[in-house]
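Customer escalation, tier 2.

The customer says the design service returned an amino acid string that "doesn't look like it belongs to this structure." They asked us to rerun it and document both sides in this ticket. The original structure tokens are below, unchanged.
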């Protein structure tokens, strides 16, 4: 899978979700205790952006209707969403650059 630099570690404060456009896709990066997770940027409930959603432990809470998702797996954990978010592998290098791997 090709890796593309998405952001810097300093761009994604711990406990927050931030949206980035990477390789023509909107993704959300979440920082959970220094681990970076990448998910599709739109909620599966009503296709609204997840940017600015709250990260509570390992759950991302959509700020539109309160749907929750596991940031590690993308699984929907709370209504009104029932479908999982697509997830992407991430890597942070020694210089604090966040890389995201996209399939294909």
């Amino acid at each position: 899978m090709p890796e593309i630099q998405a952001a810097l570690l300093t761009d994604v404060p711990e406990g927050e979700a931030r949206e980035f456009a990477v390789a023509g896709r909107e993704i959300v990066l979440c920082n959970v205790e220094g681990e970076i997770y990448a998910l599709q940027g739109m909620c599966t409930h009503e296709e609204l952006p997840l940017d600015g959603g709250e990260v509570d432990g390992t759950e991302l809470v959509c700020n539109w209707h309160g749907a929750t998702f596991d940031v590690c797996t993308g699984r929907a954990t709370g209504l009104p969403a029932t479908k999982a978010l697509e997830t992407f592998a991430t890597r942070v290098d020694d210089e604090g650059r966040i890389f995201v791997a996209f399939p294909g």
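Tier 2 assessment: The sequence is consistent with the input. The domain at 3-101 is CATH 2.102.10.10 (Rieske Iron-sulfur Protein). The radius of gyration is 13 Å. Sent an explanation to the customer and offered a walkthrough call.
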